[in-house]
Amino acid sequence: MTQKVLLKLSHISKRYKTETALKDISMALHEGEILGFLGPSGAGKTTAIKIITGQLRQTTGEAKLLDTDSANIDASIYEKIGVVADNSGIYEKIPVWQNLSIFAKIWNVPKERITEVLQQVGLYEYRKKYAGKLSKGQMQRLVLARAVLHKPRILFLDEPTSGLDPATAVSIHRMLLDLKKDGMSIFLTTHNMEEAEKLCDNVALLFHGEIVEYGPPQEICLKYNRNKQYSVRLENQEQITFAQTSENITKIAELMQENRIQSIHSCEPTLEDVFLQVTGTSLQS
Ligand SMILES: Nc1ncnc2c1ncn2[C@@H]1O[C@H](COP(=O)(O)OP(=O)(O)OP(=O)(O)O)[C@@H](O)[C@H]1O
Ligand SMILES: [Mg+2]
Asked: Rounded distance, CA 74 to CA 204, Å?
């Protein structure tokens, strides 16, 4: 089955005055997919989102969003997409509910949808609280609620969980997977490789403005699993790492037969390891 392409970048480059932020980027977002742009600070992630959503012009190349050239995007596109970049668009001096009802009026969204979204993001009990008094994680969830209020076809998220505690990050991950189940397609940027592994159907590893690897996270990790190894924990708590040699396979089989193995794991690299292998730099730097 071929999925519909919702977004396509062809040979996009972006030069700011003194530096090149994106170099010849090509990729596509398909219907029902979560696609992740993964890269360290300064890799060009935000620049890519801004070009796609028509907030910034590329230097060369073509970006198409829902069959419209990004250069020709007008306000009507915002009925079909949701963008979460920062807290902009939230009025701090009015309560949570009213923040959403302003947008519900603009987009002709029924009131019931406000309740539904607030429940989904876990903010219903805070609906009367002034937005300016929300915690950081609550604010992040309000921004997300606003972005999905009108059920957009594509949701753009720039670092959706950056700076959040692990529990709030997990609740945002759950929401994103729920939205995907409802049929939304999601483009997100992150420098958190665990987040990318957990959420994304495809990831593009971005380094100094170039895509250095692209594909499903698991496939990328297996591709770089060049020296196959197995980590074995014995019943006597001893931990041994075996390289895949015929000698070691016999040894592992013997240990198994003797019932001396407590656990055994293959040691394929994580996306973080792959990134380090390909670029020589850690993602977190
Ligand atoms: N308006 C601008 N003018 C000049 N240079 C810019 C501008 N915006 C970004 N850059 C540069 O382009 C490069 C890519 O920036 P970008 O914001 O896209 O990175 P990022 O991957 O989103 O990083 P982060 O993870 O820190 O958000 C950086 O080196 C940055 O300094
Ligand atoms: Mg950024």
From this structure: 27
Q: Which of 9, 14, 19 to mutate to test the pocket of ligand 1 (most atoms within 8 A of CB)?
A: 19
Ligand 1, residues at Cβ distance < 6 Å: 16, 19, 21, 39, 41-47, 191
How much distance in Å is there from the Cα of 80 to the middle of ligand 2? 23
CA of 283 to the centre of ligand 2 (A): 13
pLDDT, average across residues 239-253 = 92
How far apart, in Å, do the first and last CA atoms of the chain sit? 39
Ligand 1, atom nearest to 43 Cα: 21
Domains located in the chain, CATH noted: 5-216 (3.40.50.300), 226-267 (no CATH)
Q: Which ligand is nearest to the CA of 208?
A: 1
Task: Encode pLDDT of 18-50 as tens digits.
Answer: 999 999 999 999 999 999 999 988 999 999 999
Q: Which ligand is nearest to the CA of 157?
A: 2
∠ CA 17-190-227, rounded to 5°: 110
Residue 44 carries which DSSP code? S
- CA–CA dist 146, 84 (Å, integer): 9
pLDDT at 70: 84
Q: b/e string for 5-42 if b means 16 or more Cβ within 10 A?
A: ebbbbeebbbeeeeeebbbebebebbeebbbbbbbbee
Highest mean pLDDT among 7-11, 119-123, 170-174, 267-271: 7-11
The overall average pLDDT reported for the chain is 91
pLDDT on residue 255: 93
Looking at the predicted structure, is the pLDDT value of residue 238 above 80? Answer: yes
